[in-house]
Amino acid sequence: SAVISQKPSRDICQRGTSLTIQCQVDSQVTMMFWYRQQPGQSLTLIATANQGSEATYESGFVIDKFPISRPNLTFSTLTVSNMSPEDSSIYLCSVGGAGNIPPYEQYFGPGTRLTVT
Amino acid sequence: LAKTTQPISMDSYEGQEVNITCSHNNIATNDYITWYQQFPSQGPRFIIQGYKTKVTNEVASLFIPADRKSSTLSLPRVSLSDTAVYYCLVGDDDYKLSFGAGTTVTVRA
Question: By CB atoms within 10 Å of each CB, which of A30, A62, B10, B40 scores lowest?
Fold first, then answer.
């Protein structure tokens, strides 16, 4: 298994500003993912972040709005840029590819609850 | 990715068995069936995965009929702490997880 922490756990931000969310894993992992979960909704994949390459974004998400860094095998950041109230959500990172763990068995962080006013 | 359909919500009482059925009529030959559990204010947690027949672990059982067009997650003797959202996912050997709406299970005393 893998233990994942996220910082901050929650934040309240003003529109037009940016917030960087950190995701730290206690072991080296190949794949890291960023999801968004809007209030009362399911999870939506934002992007896949692999170390040493550019993040791959899902339809509806762009790098200018959600830049991602993956400097090493245990860490990633997601920035929510030029925020608006519609960005108010829980942002979660997950990891896969740790050891012999199969791809469908991912481990999720606790999430970052973002409120934009 | 095959689309999944599951009930929006289910109510149960402590000590009962809860069975959640997920429909996935368009499941492909290479697809696995995976279930996740999400407690309030937490990230989802992997519960169980199967391809066909029955799989059991310390948390749940997964029943998959021969045609694989549906699957049933069985939670034995639930307790209040089993109150959560349960997601059924179908996909092949790919890291991308596609979450549906999930089933909110509420266990009452």
Answer: B40
Q: Tell me how far CA of residue B36 lies from CA of A52, A104, B87, in angstroms.
A: 29, 10, 5
Q: How many helices (H) and strands (E) does chain B have?
A: 0, 9
Q: Are B4 and B23 in contact (CB under 8 A)?
A: yes
Residue A85 is predicted with a pLDDT of 96
pLDDT in tens, B28-37: 998 899 999 9
pLDDT number for residue A68: 96
CA angle A9, A12, A17 (to 5 degrees): 110
Contact state of A106 with B97 under an 8 Å Cβ cutoff: yes
Distance CA B21, CA B39 (A): 19
pLDDT in tens, A19-48: 999 999 998 888 899 999 998 899 999 999
Which residue of A48, A103, A111 is in closest CB contact with B43?
A: A111
| C-alpha span between B38 and A110 (Å, rounded) | 10
- Angle B6-B12-B15 (CA atoms, 0-180°, nearest 5)? 125
